[in-house]
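Today's session is about reading a structure prediction critically. Students often jump straight to the picture, but the first step is always the sequence itself: look for stretches that repeat, for charged clusters, for runs of hydrophobic residues. Only then move on to the predicted structure, which in these notes is written as discrete structure tokens rather than atom positions. Here is the chain we will use throughout the hour.
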Amino acid sequence: MQQSRREFLITGTALAAASILDAPIQVAKANVAGHRLTASAGRIPLLGADAPETKVWTYNGNVPGPVLRLRRGERFELDFENALQQPTTVHWHGLRVPNDMDGVPVLTQAPVAPGGRFRYAFELRNTGTYWYHPHFQSAEQVDRGLHGVIIVEDDDPPAVDRDLLWVLDDWRLDGQGQIVNDFGNLHDASHQGRFGNTASVNGRVPEDLEVQSGERIRLRLVNTANAWIFGLDFVAHSPTVIAYDGHAVEPHQPTGGLVIVGPSQRVDVILDLNAAPGERFEVIDRYYSRQPYKLLDLVYGQNRLRSKAPADKAALPPPDLPLPSLATAERHEIVFSGGAMGGMQSARYDGQETGIRELARKGKIWAINGTVASKHDEPPVLKLRRGHSYIIEFVNETAFTHPIHLHGHPMKVLEANGRKPAWDLWRDTLLLEARARGTVAVMADNPGRWMLHCHIPEHQEAGMMAVVQVD
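Below is the predicted structure for this chain, in token form.
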């Protein structure tokens, strides 16, 4: 699987030019109340100008969709139109929105039918890097290209020469450069999810990013892939992480030198570019150690911007989030089970204990606390009281890593995969390794019925989702 991802290129295809990595996607103006977003079928030059265009699903005709650059405290209003042939919604991943604006079909809103419209409106409560995507048949809709980025501008941003966005993705393509239409197969659902054979940055197969000696870049990494975990090695450079999932963190070097971005996660880094003019360095994805591959090259121009990039830490202001009280927090446990090599023999499904063979025939293979989700609007796995603090221990009994996403509430990470963070760490999506545990603290301040699920959509749709109710 990893080999095919690395090797796949259509014969004669030219790689996309370096300029696509700067701003190949439309940017909506900040402080504008009336945004419009349309989901529709389209085509993009994913593999370059010399290859056939790839049929995709788009927001406003582009993949990724328009970047929405906004400001904290403003009221965001957006008119959404569905020009697809199937229902859809828009979920505002990581944003603390009212429950009826969360974009989960049936649970928080009716699906937007083909030809239908829906108006999303809410106040922007936090700065940071976020993204939006469907939550209806998301295994297919996201993978076909329906995703975009929201940047809520920092109140006091670090001084940088450029603020760049890399939307990381992968695609499962056939020999004609078209998306393979094998969504929903049981092998993907029961194993690691849907992997592609072609990587992209900002909707194009990348080649070079031209940089200048002495330049400081803020690089916003957003992983929109269904299942692929990126672990980026900026060869001969030392990126400094300043935010995870939109929330500021004490600036630090990533563990092992790799910037790891799981599905749906975001990482903001500062990249100081101090090599000599004319030099070239690879950016290599090393997360899957048996098959590393080059994502792109950093290519230094012939001129210096300055003798050396600035030396300050470029820290962001601390995140403004409701702090849970660890001393008074009520404790709960959430157990994830199932999948290939998981050992699950049976689980509750539609109110009845059901054997694994029958579950597999229904396309259901994962469970949360012994229950396989059959629909979005399940009975709650947790009932929380508004204004109270909770410590939740996630237990992964499966053979695979899962990005666990809680809607509506940021999670303060206390421990993950056997390690305690050395700094205050907030995430909306926790990458939970196979056979590992993670402990988070939550302040239940946002009332409603919220999804808790694995953000590998094949896993979610095969049963790994639940509802957390806040009253």
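Discussion point for the tutorial: The domain at 2-153 is CATH 2.60.40.420 (Immunoglobulin-like).
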